[in-house]
């Protein structure tokens, strides 16, 4: 499998509007973060997780022009507001792109972006929406999920298995549940939310994330959804072995 970090920033990205870099060194390109998203690929399929507001540029930078399916973690703006650019993926496929999320996520997306799911004014639908089944297989990739507490909603955490390889993606949560630890236990790579050092009401802070990594024991852990307080070069040397900050455009091949 191949994992690509399309974006590893928080909802406002880094820098924030106003050229606000916070504690991040603007001279280090690893600190320029678009909104959080990944792509997972196997020999058979390519799967996109979330349609961030930066999706168009993310896919251009990654030279990705075709997607076999989209998974949504939840319906917050920084994870879905690039949905209009699915049109170009639809044109590349010639058929609507299959999209999956929790039932409440899909209901919200269908209401807010009805034209993408049902078409309008002679334009065809671009997304074939589905509620997530308990266990999903797309091509040669098995996908399982877990509900993650995220403020007053739940986001979906995903585990991707292909052969003997496993990738976990777990963003937008503020509590770590036993179900989360069980799903992500022993994965080869766990991409996991670490918004900042200070606690946050709806996101994981660094120590909470490190504690979860210590319990799940992935082969490697990659920190994502980081804000402008998380300078890459300052943060990296402080992390335990096997844990590192993500940066946009990073690729891992298992």
Question: How would you describe what is shown here?
Answer:
The chain is of the alpha/beta class and 254 residues long. It has one domain: Ribonuclease Z/Hydroxyacylglutathione hydrolase-like (Metallo-beta-lactamase, Chain A). Helices cover 22% and strands 29% of the residues. It has eight helices and 14 strands. It starts with a strand and ends with a strand. The model has no long low-confidence stretch (mean pLDDT 98). This is MBL fold metallo-hydrolase.
Given as residue ranges, the uncertain stretches (5+ residues, pLDDT < 50) are none
Reading the helices and strands in chain order gives EEEHEHHEHHEEEEEHEHEHEE
What is the overall silhouette?
globular
Major sheet characteristics: 7 strands, mixed
Gyration radius (Cα, Å) is 17 Å
Number of helices: 8
Total strand segments: 14
- What's the CATH H-level superfamily name? Ribonuclease Z/Hydroxyacylglutathione hydrolase-like
Determine the strand fraction and express it as a percent band: 25-35%
Structural class, please?
alpha/beta
Which strand order does the major sheet show?
Answer: 6-5-4-3-2-1-14
Q: CATH class, anyone?
A: Alpha Beta
Q: What fraction, in percent, of the residue positions are helical?
A: 10-25%
- Tell me what the CATH architecture is: 4-Layer Sandwich
Q: How many domains, in number, for the residues?
A: 1
Q: Would you tell me the overall average pLDDT?
A: 98
Tell me the span between the first and last alpha carbons.
Answer: 5 Å
CATH topology: Metallo-beta-lactamase, Chain A
Pfam families: Lactamase_B_2 (PF12706)
Domain Metallo-beta-lactamase: 34-225
Protein name: MBL fold metallo-hydrolase
GO molecular function, one term: hydrolase activity
């Amino acid at each position: 499998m191949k994992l690509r970090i399309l974006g590893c920033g928080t909802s406002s990205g880094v820098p924030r509007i106003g050229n606000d870099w916070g504690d991040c060194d603007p001279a280090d390109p690893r600190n320029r973060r678009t909104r959080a998203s990944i792509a997972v690929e196997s020999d058979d399929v390519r799967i996109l997780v979330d349609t961030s507001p930066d999706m168009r540029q993310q896919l251009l930078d990654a030279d990705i022009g075709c997607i076999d399916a989209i998974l949504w973690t939840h319906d917050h703006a920084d994870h879905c507001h690039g949905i209009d650019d699915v049109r170009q993926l639809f044109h590349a496929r010639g058929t609507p792109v299959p999209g999956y999320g929790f039932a409440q996520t899909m209901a919200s997306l269908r209401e807010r972006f009805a034209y993408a799911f049902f078409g309008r004014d002679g334009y065809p639908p671009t997304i074939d929406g589905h509620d997530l089944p308990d266990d999903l297989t797309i091509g040669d990739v098995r996908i399982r999920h877990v509900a993650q507490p995220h403020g007053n909603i739940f986001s979906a955490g995903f585990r991707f298995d292909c052969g003997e390889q496993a990738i976990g993606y777990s963003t937008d949560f503020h509590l770590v549940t036993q179900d989360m630890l069980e799903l992500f236990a022993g994965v080869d790579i766990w991409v996991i939310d670490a918004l900042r050092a200070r606690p946050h009401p709806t996101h994981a802070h660094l120590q909470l994330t490190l504690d979860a990594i210590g319990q799940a024991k992935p082969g490697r852990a990659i920190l994502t959804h980081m804000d402008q307080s998380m300078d890459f070069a300052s943060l990296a040397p402080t992390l335990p072995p096997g844990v590192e900050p993500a940066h946009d455009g990073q690729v891992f091949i298992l």
